[in-house]
Amino acid sequence: MQSLRSAVIALAGLAFVGLAAAFAVSLTLVVGALLTVTLGARILMGKTKRAPVYARAKRRDDPRVWNDGKGTIIDL
């Protein structure tokens, strides 16, 4: 009788471990599928190409010179 009870408890433990493993595998597959679909959608949508913005510096003929207390700064 004792060995029968031990066998039933062992089988119940194995069934629980099997169900937990199946749940973990299925959850991993679901998360992987969601990430794959999300990545695929991002790749297929693509990004619009932004137009470049050209900036031009103002032309100054005379350089700016000032002293900040640590040394003289000459801005060309």
What are the segments in which pLDDT stays under 50 over at least 5 consecutive residues? none
Query: What's the overall average pLDDT, rounded?
Result: 86
* Beta-strand percent range: 5-15%
The arrangement of helices and strands along the chain is HEE
* Strand order in the largest sheet: 1-2
Protein described:
Helix content is 58%, strand content 11%. The protein has a domain at 1-48. It has 76 residues and is mainly alpha-helical. The model has no long low-confidence stretch (mean pLDDT 86).
List the helices and strands and how they pair.
Layout: H1 2-45, E1 64-67, E2 72-75
Antiparallel strand pairs: 1-2
Organism: Peteryoungia aggregata LMG 23059
Protein name: Transmembrane protein
Task: Summarize the structure in short.
The protein contains 1 helix and 2 strands, in the order αββ. The chain is elongated.
